[in-house]
Write a structure and sequence with these properties.
The chain contains three helices and twelve strands; from the N terminus they run αααββββββββββββ. With about 250 residues, it is mainly β. The chain has one domain: Clam (outer membrane lipoprotein receptor (LolB), chain A). Strands 5-4-3-2-1-12-11-10-9-8-7-6 form a twelve-stranded antiparallel β-sheet, sandwiched between helices. The longest helix is centred in the first third of the chain and has 12 residues. The radius of gyration is 17 Å and the shape is globular.
């Protein structure tokens, strides 16, 4: 797949302002490492009696509340290490993630592996053969209390509390949050026979919105699981986004 040149035009678009997506998955799954660098308390107290809807509301508030919901756009730029299926060796590269509403543009370039993925709000595109675009489902959290969305319980994983948000089309995202801070630790999607998992390692507030600065993604496929570890170097919020950024190639 000769896609080495894919990311260069996108990087130029981002830095020139033509203008976001948010798991090696070896970290602990019991929540003991969840947002280890943060000490903020949850915006509301989380107990064993906290309902799934209350958990979703707490996570929404921890993410930035209305400032998170009202984001016009988000751009994440940084470095990535890719681990192909059945490989312990990583491929270093760069990435750009652009999000505006429910539209997403992702580009990754790690030399021999480079790809572009786009969702224009209705249709999706992936330059990876037979692999659907990796879902960026964190914005779903902002719709937890909107018409057409339902919130249901998931089994807890020790210190992590779980809930599922499902839209009117039946697409579900499973969230697990830190019971001490209500911050999202992981979210998972099941799509077209694939399982996509994202895990947040470190986060910082930018303009009142919680942004993951270190996160990983896991893609489970028939040939094995692939991993990507992202480190965010630059964040741009509420920048104008050119419509061409979300144009799906012919």
């Amino acid at each position: 797949m000769n896609t080495r040149n894919i990311i260069l035009p996108a990087l130029a678009i981002v830095f020139c302002g033509s203008l976001a997506v948010y798991g090696q998955d070896g970290s602990k799954k019991d929540g003991s490492n969840a947002m280890a660098s943060t000490t903020a308390a949850a915006p509301v107290a989380i107990t064993s009696a906290t309902t799934p809807l209350e958990l979703a509301r707490a996570a929404y508030l921890a993410q930035g509340g209305d400032k998170f919901r009202n984001l016009k756009s988000m751009v994440l730029i940084g470095t990535v290490n890719l681990y192909p299926p059945n490989s312990t060796n990583s491929l270093p590269g760069q990435f750009v993630i652009v999000v505006a509403g429910d539209r997403v543009h992702v580009e990754v370039n790690a030399g021999v592996i480079a790809f572009k993925q786009i969702f224009d709000g209705h249709n999706s595109y992936s330059s990876l053969p037979n692999v659907p675009p990796i879902p960026f489902s964190l914005p779903v959290l902002a719709s937890f209390d909107q018409p057409g969305y339902t919130v249901t319980a998931l089994p807890d994983i020790k210190k992590l509390r779980g809930f599922r948000i499902m839209d009117a089309q039946g697409k579900a995202t499973d969230f697990y949050i830190d019971s001490a801070t209500a911050r999202v630790f992981t979210y998972t999607n099941h799509l077209d026979g694939y399982t996509f998992s994202t895990e947040h390692k470190k986060a910082k507030e930018v303009e009142g919105v919680l942004i993951p600065y270190s996160f990983s993604q896991r893609l489970e496929m028939q040939q094995g699981a692939g991993f990507a570890e992202y480190t965010v170097k630059d964040v741009k919020l509420n920048q104008p986004i050119g419509e061409d950024v979300f144009t799906i190639p012919n």
